[in-house]
Write a structure and sequence with these properties.
This protein is of the alpha/beta class and about 290 residues long. The protein has helices at about 25-35, 50-60, 80-95, 105-110, 115-125, 140-150, 165-170, 170-175, 210-220, 225-235, 250-260, 270, 280, and strands spanning about 5, 40-45, 65-70, 100-105, 130-135, 155-160, 180-185, 240-245. It has an 8-stranded parallel β-barrel, surrounded by 4 helices. Helix 2 crosses helix 3 and helix 3 (about 80-95) packs across helix 5. The protein is globular, with a radius of gyration of 18 Å.
C-alpha cells in the first residue's frame, strides 16, 4: 500500500478545509484500526503537531506494525537537543525506535551546526534507534544543497496537481537515483484541491480560476476531487509513500475505496497544465494556518 497517513489532525485543528476540528482519540483509534486492515504502514507525525505523538502512543504503540516517522523541532540548536527531543518523542509514542527521523527544516542542516546535527543523525541510526534519517524540504534548491553535503535515506517533499515543481525539475529522479526514499505530503494542498472554487477566501483569490478549470477537467473524466488528487501523486514512480491526513475513519474509507475503484492510469501530460510556480500559494507554511509540515 503506497498510501501513508499524516497525523497532524490527531493533535491540532488543522487545514483550510477542516470543519471537524481536532480528531478525538477514539476516532483516531478507529482510523488506525482500519489503516492496519488495509495495509497502510507509514504514519507521519511531529512534536510540532500538538498532541499527535501522545495520541499515537495511546493508539498505535508497539506491537502495532506501523512505520512511524517523526521530526526534530524546527530550528533545532544542536546534537544534544536533537537526541533529547527524539527521546521525548519515543516516550510519547511508547516506542523504543522509529522508522524515520526527519530534520524539520533543511536550514538546520545547512547551518553552521549542520555537520554536527548530521553526525548525530548517523549515530542514532547506527545505534538502531532510527532506521532512516532524512529531511523535510520544500524546494529544489534545498535538495541540491543537502545532497551536495550529506548522504540521506529519506526525503519528505510537497507534491500535488498544482505543485509539480520537483517532478518537472527532475529532482525526484535525482533523489531516487541515489536510493533515497521519497514521501509526498500536501497531496490535497491542505484540502484546497477538495474545495469548491466559490468557497475560497480572498487570500486564495488567484487560485479560483485555475481551480475552476481543474475541477471541470476532472469532472469530464468522471473523477472525484479526492481520487484525482491521489491518483496523480500515486502514479509518480519516484514517490514511495503518499501521505494523506483525515479527521474521521469514514474519510479514510472513502479515500481507500476511491483509489481501489479507480485503478486506470491517468495521462500525466494532461495534468501538467495545472502546475503552478507561485510559492506563496503552494507552501501552506506561508498561509498562517497551523504548523509548516
Amino acid at each position: 500500500m503506497k498510501l501513508g497517513l499524516g497525523t497532524v489532525q490527531f493533535g491540532l485543528d488543522y487545514g483550510v478545509s477542516n470543519n471537524e476540528g481536532c480528531t478525538p482519540v477514539d476516532e483516531a483509534r478507529r482510523i488506525l484500526d482500519y489503516a492496519e486492515t488495509v495495509g497502510i504502514q507509514v504514519l507521519d507525525t511531529s512534536p510540532s503537531y500538538g498532541v499527535s505523538e501522545q495520541v499515537l502512543g495511546e493508539v498505535a504503540a508497539d506491537p502495532r506494525p506501523f512505520k512511524v516517522v517523526t521530526k526534530s523541532r524546527p530550528q533545532v540548536s544542536g546534537p544534544n537537543e536533537l537526541r533529547t527531543d527524539l527521546q521525548e518523542s519515543l516516550r510519547r509514542l511508547s516506542r523504543t525506535r522509529v522508522y524515520g527521523l526527519l530534520v524539520h527544516r533543511s536550514s538546520d542542516l545547512l547551518s553552521r551546526n549542520g555537520a554536527e546535527l548530521y553526525a548525530e543523525l548517523v549515530r542514532l541510526k547506527e545505534q538502531g534507534i532510527v532506521e532512516k534519517i532524512g529531511v523535510s524540504v520544500y524546494t529544489a534548491a534545498e535538495i541540491d544543497a543537502l545532497l551536495e553535503k550529506y548522504s540521506i535515506d529519506l526525503l519528505q517533499i510537497p507534491c500535488n496537481v498544482m505543485d509539480q515543481r520537483l517532478l518537472v525539475s527532475g529532482h525526484l529522479q535525482t533523489a531516487k537515483d541515489r536510493g533515497i526514499e521519497i514521501h509526498a505530503r500536501s497531496v490535497f494542498l491542505q484540502g484546497l484541491l477538495l474545495m469548491s472554487p466559490e468557497s475560497l477566501t480572498r487570500k486564495f483569490k488567484s487560485m479560483v480560476t485555475p481551480l475552476r478549470s481543474y475541477r471541470r477537467f476532472i469532472a469530464e473524466r468522471g473523477l472525484t476531487p479526492v481520487c484525482a488528487a491521489l491518483r496523480f501523486v500515486l502514479q509518480i514512480p519516484e514517490i514511495d509513500v503518499v501521505l494523506c491526513g483525515v479527521n474521521t475513519c469514514s474519510q479514510l474509507e472513502e479515500i481507500v475505496a476511491d483509489v481501489v475503484a479507480n485503478q486506470a492510469n491517468l495521462e500525466m501530460r494532461e495534468f501538467s497544465k495545472f502546475g503552478m510556480d507561485e510559492v506563496r500559494l503552494l507552501n501552506p507554511s506561508l498561509w498562517g494556518e497551523g504548523p509548516d509540515n
